[in-house]
Design brief:
The chain is an alpha+beta fold. It contains 13 helices and eight strands. The protein has a four-stranded mixed β-sheet with strand order 1-4-5-8. Strands 2-3-7-6 form a four-stranded antiparallel β-sheet, with no helix packed on it.
Length: about 425
């Protein structure tokens, strides 16, 4: 069928199915939060609705339109998949949840590229149907921006691996069934070469998850402790010692996933409505900052078109994703700046005027995305080195094993340097 015929059929199906499920829009025109501020029960209920919606789409043939049929997909191509995504975003009233996006757009594609046939059959249909949600077990207290310096250890024990360590800033771990874990398997190799990736069930003995309360209110992030967690080698993702390549694959999908987070936080139209409500729309400073937000939103639309073209041409994720993430974070920052200018002291006290105090959640949450998925500084290094061909960042641990690098770091810390 033609694209227009597909869109008509898909739109009718979405409307009919949402009506049957009794999914109604939340009447909150000024929800501009970047991260959820929900109780555990509320957030679990939201995820249950997302699971139901994903199952309905999958069973009707809409849940994996551009995936191969062997995993339940339709092999309909990028154009069809994006057309349905636009309809879904327009009509579905469910607030987005990062764990769903991580599962469908980061971890599932990584398994599709790097997993064994058994892993693909075991995980992908269940992920695409919403039955299984997965998080990233990457960052650590001593290895944040320098992810390759992670120290969680995995030691071979016959056909199993024994894993001990700590992960942090793990989005949605308290609600996930599985995690994609990067662990150190050879501390005597250079840090980028001694890691291995695994798929770990989060209900395994020795796994403890502790939510972290954020300054914006919710608990989107978690600490995850692993104490002698036994993982079968059949859950290894990729080759032994190739965990860095697996991590880079997932991170590339994350940085290319701006379309999945494009509507997170406040938008230009909401800022304009707030300015008009407070009589600030003619203020020159306000108008200048609104223009900055509008331009950045238009750049994001251009990015989506470039993403589509790249996917249609079969291009693999690249350092261009870092450019897009920098632009998206810059847009979030511009929104926060404009909100502060428009609202002034109304930002920090709920005066009862609709659509004002809610911007507090945006201003407190937006800085998080300058760190999530790799800090702004890391993104700029990637762009400089991989796109512009500039010299690589000097590294004190170059040529050293991970163990030697950690020892050098301890010595420098002890000497006060």
């Amino acid at each position: 069928m033609s694209l227009s015929e597909f869109e008509t059929r898909a739109r009718n199906w979405v409307v009919d199915t949402l009506t049957r499920l009794e999914f109604t829009a939340v009447d909150d025109e000024f929800d501009v939060s970047v991260f959820h501020d929900l109780t555990e029960d509320e957030e679990r209920a939201l995820l249950d609705r997302h699971r139901t919606w994903q199952r309905e789409k999958f069973d009707a043939g809409y849940g994996a339109l551009d995936w191969p049929r062997e995993y339940g997909g339709a092999e309909a191509g990028t154009e069809i998949a994006e057309a349905f995504a636009r309809i879904d975003n327009e009509l579905c009233p469910l607030p987005p949840h990062e764990l769903v996006s991580v599962t469908l757009h980061l971890i599932a594609p990584t398994i599709r590229l790097l997993g064994t046939d058994e892993q693909k059959q075991r995980f992908l249909p269940r992920m695409l149907r919403g039955e299984l949600l997965a998080c990233q077990l990457f960052s650590e207290p001593d290895a944040g921006s320098d992810l390759a310096d992670l120290g969680t250890r995995a030691v071979r024990d016959g056909d199993d691996w024994i894993v001990s360590g700590q992960k942090v800033w793990t989005s949605g771990a308290q609600f996930a069934e599985w995690g994609e874990l990067i662990a150190r398997t050879d501390p005597d190799q250079p840090k980028h070469q001694g890691m291995t990736a695994f798929l770990v069930p989060l209900d395994a003995p020795g796994v403890e998850i502790r939510p972290i309360r954020q300054m914006s209110g919710g608990s989107s992030f978690n600490e995850v402790f692993l104490d002698n967690v036994r993982i079968p080698d059949t859950n290894r993702l990729g080759e032994v010692g190739k965990g860095w390549s697996v991590a880079l694959t997932t991170l590339a999908f994350e940085r290319e996933g701006g379309s999945n987070t494009a509507n997170v936080g406040g938008q230009f139209s909401q800022l304009v409505a707030t300015a008009r409500r407070l009589g600030r729309e003619d203020d020159p400073r306000v108008r200048e900052q609104l223009a900055r937000v509008y331009l950045r939103q238009q750049l994001a639309a251009v990015d989506l078109l470039r993403d589509r073209q790249a996917r249609e041409e079969g291009a693999a994720p690249s350092a261009i994703g870092s450019v897009r993430k920098i632009q998206w974070v810059d847009k979030l920052t511009a929104v926060s700046t404009a909100a502060r200018t428009i609202l002034g002291r109304n930002l920090i006290a709920d005066t009862g005027v609709p659509g004002t105090y809610g911007w507090n959640a945006h201003v407190l949450g937006a800085p998080g995305y300058s760190i999530a998925g790799g800090s702004d500084q890391i993104q700029r290094n990637i762009v400089a080195e991989r796109l512009l061909g500039l010299p690589t960042e000097p590294r004190a641990d170059r040529g050293l094993s991970w163990r030697e690098g950690r020892q050098r770091a301890r010595e420098r810390a002890g000497s006060g340097h």
